[in-house]
Amino acid sequence: MSDESAGPREPGPLRLRKSEFPPARTLIMAIVNRTPDSFYRPGITWDHQKAMERVHEIVAEGADILDVGGVPAKPGDEVTVTEEIRRTVPFIEAVRAAYPDLVISVDTFRHEVGRAACEAGADLLNDTWGGWDPRLAEVAAEFGVGIVCSHAGGLPPRTRPFRIAYEDVMTDVLEHVLSLAAKAERAGVDEARIIIDPAHDFGKNSWHSLEISRRLGEMTATGWPVLLSASHKDFVGETLGTSVDNRLAGTLAVAAVGAWLGARVFRVHNVTETRQALDVVGAIRGDVVPARMIRGLA
Amino acid sequence: MIAAAAVCPSPPLLARELTGRALVLPELRAACASAVTRLLAAGPGVVVVVGGGDATKSWDPGDRLDLSAWAPALGRRGTPGLPLALGLGAMLLDAAGYTGRRILQAVGAAEPAAACLELGASLPAEARRVALLVMGDASARRSPAAPGHFDERAGPFDLAVEQAFRDGDMATLAGLDATLANDLMATGRPAWQVLAGALRAGPAPTGEVLYADAPFGVGYLVAVLD
Predict the structure, then answer these.
(1) Within 10 Å of residue A248's Cβ, how many Cβ atoms?
(2) CA B11 to each of CA B43, B82, B214: distance values in angstroms, whole numbers, following the listed order
(3) Mean pLDDT for the stretch of residues B29-57
């Protein structure tokens, strides 16, 4: 590991907007994409009104964070900076007006978009493409918001892995995300607002994604809050041999294993189901007090 | 002499930590707290907690319930092996702020009526004013959802016990059929008979039933006798 990597730290509170979340608290980041062509239920929240309705739903279901994206991960028609801002920023403004306390994340790889989103009220920059634009961290520092430090295997945004191989994928993930975390800290980002993410499927084949799922404990052992983003992704589908619409159970299994291994933020499409899975894992771990226990106790 | 007696059930769910986030059966909890408050208002020199256990023996007054037997996640505290009924009785006294002298007296589940009555008869001599906190449950076969499923004899059995508390009728408690009580999973039978043994020599007490219901198929009775 290079000297520029952030070293292990004591797990501390995760600070987002005005809230501090202790290490044992799992957070749900609900996905609402402002795209016509994302991979899961494409276009379902492309319409502004539909997207707002979805926000009302995920808030009612208990989501802790809203993640707004304006560019699909897959290759496709170019989405310019202007267009990405047009898709995401007015929406973030509207959500911020409706929900003054909701933590809003913007899923972007461009600092221009990050800046406009922060001006509109975003609290977290979800840099899924692994620091492709180093100025995103500067924006996070400038606005006092958080940043997600991800691993995309060095691939440029919106590209697919082509025969990608790692000597050891988790070592590569750790080196990269800890290096990004160190850079973010040096740029002035509050260390309690930095999250690390192995980024399942980004620059990885499905074997790699299974491996980082299995070894997620190596990431949580660093003490940095770990985000797990596996919802309906290809590695789940390839593992099960199921289409994109039949991956919820597999998604929940990945979330459960991740929660058991100490992940703290879960980026998902299904809030209620994920909350239930995480609460059961939390109760098994002893982090969550069960709702109502009667069986055998009457 | 016996200054007053209170009767409470002893389901584990009375321990607040065992039910999770939900406050289960607040009315039952309130009735138990009220019964203990009235018991302590008699100004006893000692409170004898009587409850069923594996064997008839007294436990150290400082013993407390080890909840980890029911919920390992809560961690080991208290005294392993302390009978549930005694632990819950101690818990009720603690909750009421009682710090005076106490005796934790277990009575064996298989103890015949005569032995229970005899044990009870020895208790008035413990102090000038003795309070009895009798921890025991009625039938666990009150409904199809009950731990022991439904038994049609359960309702009448529990009703007879309830009526005995209401009337201060110690003879009925003394005469409870141990075999029937066992069949009906009415684990309070030995403790109630200790109560009968303690009170039946004196004037018939006045009884008041504060709670009588079986919300989970187990009969819970809360009563005060003075």
Answers:
(1) 17
(2) 27, 14, 11
(3) 98
| ipTM of the complex, rounded to two decimals | 0.94
Q: Do A292 and B19 touch (CB under 8 A)?
A: yes
Q: Which of A290, A292, A297 sits opposite B11 (nearest CB)?
A: A297
Inter-chain touch A298–B18, beta carbons under 8 Å: no
Beta strands in chain B, from DSSP E residues, in sequence order: 2-8, 46-53, 57-59, 102-108, 130-135, 207-213, 220-225
Both tokens assigned to B181 = 């009580």
pTM, to two decimals: 0.91
The tens digit of pLDDT for each residue in A156-181 reads: 999 999 999 999 999 999 999 999 99
**Residue B218 CA: distances (Å) to CA of B13, B145, B149, B174:** 12, 10, 10, 21
Question: Judging by beta carbons within 10 Å of its beta carbon (0-12, 13-18, 19+), is residue B62 exposed, middle or buried?
Answer: exposed
Q: Which has the closest alpha carbon to B14: B111, B149, B136?
A: B136
Helix ranges restricted to H, chain A: 48-60, 81-98, 111-120, 135-143, 169-187, 206-214, 216-220, 234-240, 248-260, 271-285
Cα–Cα distance, B222 to A45 (Å, whole number): 58
Minimum CA–CA partner of A298 in chain B = B11
Residues belonging to chain B: 226
Q: Contact at 8 Å (CB) between A220 and A260?
A: no
